[in-house]
Structures
1.
Amino acid sequence: MDIFQPFLVVDQIVASDKLPPDKKISEIKTILLDFHESRQAVEKQISEMLENTDSSAGDSEFYNVLEQKSLTLQKRTADIIRLLQVDEKSVNQDLFKALQYFQTKDGHLEKNAPQEFLSEKEQNAMNKDKKNFPIPLYKILLFQ
């Protein structure tokens, strides 16, 4: 069973120019009610898959994808972060130090960049490769 199928159908209904609004609502309601019956089975399958998945491998893959996709966000936010003025008293001190470091270095980071603002899981992802400092991952986590 494709768990996304009901949402694809709803999307088609919403996009339709041939159906009046009341008919769209009626059809969407029918689809969602039908899906509700099979939702428990889907939720059970997802839970079982999550239990059988090595969470550290999933985390690692998540951070790899995040790092690879960070360039778009960096282009949009780096200049904002460089110019951002933050009141030291109103923000977490570890985050403040990281922002100051980023601004002082004008975004050109090195492996000694402050990491105390990161969660333990994020720090582990940052330090998985002792040789290379993952600058794109650091930036995306800082901007986040």
Note: Residues 21-51 form the longest helix (31 residues).
2.
Amino acid sequence: AVMFGRWDAYREKLLSYWRPVYEPLALENGEVRNGAYVDWTWDKNNLKPDFVMHSYYFGSDWRLDPFDNAEILHDFIQDVKEVTGAKQVNVVARCEGANIAAAYLVKYGYQDIRCLELYIPALEGIDMIGAAFSGEIAFTPALLETYYRNRVSFDDDTLHEFIDALVEYLTATYTSDAACELINRQLPTFYEQFINDMILTSYGMFPGIWSLVGPEYYAEARAGVFRGRESEYAGLLEKLDRYDTLVRQRYGDVLKDARENGVKIAVIAKYGEYTYQTPFCKEAAGNLLNDDTCSLAHASLGATCAVKARTLDDARLSGPDARFISPDLRVDAASCLLPEHTWIVYQCEHSDFPSAVNLLLRRFFETDGNLTVFSDPAFPQYLTFTGDSVVPMSAQDVPAPAAPQNELRLLAVIRRYFRMIASFFKMISALIGR
């Protein structure tokens, strides 16, 4: 209560800095202002294919409602068909592009699409966005320590060692538990008083970003961000609810209908030894396999994943669908929406689109029938990205699970901490002496 006693003044001051940053990108109730689109225009007379994939790039305006982007995509597809003389096109839909592709299928049907490859699709959302929008955020010592060790570094080795020892000491002595508990008690107030206002003056104005809020977060996020402002944002909410009803809640049926109408569909997901990009998402506590942005369970449209550094339970490993188990025994693709048409690439980040993966894309496109994960030994369900190629995954590609730490290591942690304090002050003394 003391911390937020004068919150109104703090909020207005913070938002006074925040609003101008996003003002140039702002939409009005989800609609573009003054025709100011982002990265989607093209000239039909100068449409030329990419030399690697012989593909035509559609740069969507990531702010827009997926259905609005679907209208623009429809025009683009018609122009590509006219330029190439093709009766149908193959589509590679990346991340949010999968949401646009699903909206396209709902709105325009299947007659123009021959193949659809969903590349790290965000149809089930991105946890860090859903958590921030819904207020489902929390800090834990393990999460903060994992985030620090994977994200933060210092040029000076002594300073880095000191901070590392401090983080380890605070975790081992449960000091950080008390700090996290204090922060977590204040987070609901922080969300109500600031985060939802911050969202509404930035990414919350963009229906495209709302499409990245997963189904488990949407209802709570909608209620929290727009509480008491529903009439003011009626136009935006209409778009958000349309996408929720027609795509988020039923994308599986949409894709299955497309397959029944002759569209070949594949899913490509990724994972590696990564932590999430945010230290506050409840799903980011270092326990889920992910590609540094999306959880593998979501991007694969349903894979069952083991906790990091562990393997699946024995019953699953020896079950009737064991052929869908990864060589590292951490992933079961049998539970995916399209298990026989879902490929998973190990050691490849979400933001990395290596040309080596294009070989898999092309193999799927060029196959007369519907290529499955069992069709070609060169492209099994699980692949490893080596930096310049993709090869069938083997158990040897994956680091051995870390050995559990002994609870009696506390004394060693304390010794290291005080030893690093001494080193740190020696460094400070040396700098002062200069």
Note: The longest strand covers residues 264-271.
3.
Amino acid sequence: MSVENSKVSFIVPIFNVDPYLKASLDSIAHQTYQNFEVIMIDDGSTDHSELIAKSYARKDSRFEYIKTKNNGQSHARNIGLSRVKGKFISFVDPDDSLEKNFLKNLINAFDDDTLIASYLFPSTKYNKHSISKKITVDDFFSMMFSGIIGTVVWNKLFRANILEKVRFPEGQVHEEIEFFRQILHVINDYEVVVVNEKHQYRYREVRKGNTKSTFDPKRIVGAKDETNLILDLKKMQKSKSVEVVNLDTLVFLKNFIQEVDDIDFKKEAVTIFDELYAHVNKVKLFFIKPIWLLSIVKFRLKQRNE
């Protein structure tokens, strides 16, 4: 299972990002690690994204262009997953870009037993991992849901064989939650590496042209997915991550309840919130995320007094 010079498949879902697309694709093309393919899935763009993407496919045989109807980011990514030829898979959003050693650092973090390598999330101030370090599954999910590495796919590199039966749920937002829940069942302890290399992925926080992922009351599905993940983690006795995912879900539900106008969705969110709050370990979470915990306790007290 040697990783030396193994091919990497980049999956790039594209929807109306012509102001950013060239910079994004250039950053992939100019990687110091050059053994890769780029699967560009155009999710029904109506701007000049198609012309830009096709120009890369014409001039570089490693770039492949696929056109689809506008069915959303998950659908586009799933098409990419069905077409990959590499031993490793990386996801890049088309309005973001990579530093030149993005891929090289991740590949170098792999040994024969590694299944996933992840950078820290761009905004994290967590500095404990000064060198690449293998972690347990419990730590992996804890670090994702506490924001240290984030519940995103674009700062991670996956060994392709673990994603053979893993797909993103289509037609919803927060699709990464279910994606990682599926991965939970195909990885073991110390098969994930966290790499402390800052700013290797240039993340654009203002995203005007991303695939379908705008606010919708149906985001409540994300909370349900997290609840299912908590149940799976409990069954597998991942006690630390159970608490962290529980807290993350409560924070999400708090914000959802405060923002959503639809009465039925609000009631459903309150029901899930009350159930999860009853089982949260406040003592443990005080030492993990005290600010998050404080916001939840205050919100709970306010709800009870209304």
Note: Residues 208-215 have pLDDT under 50 and may be disordered.
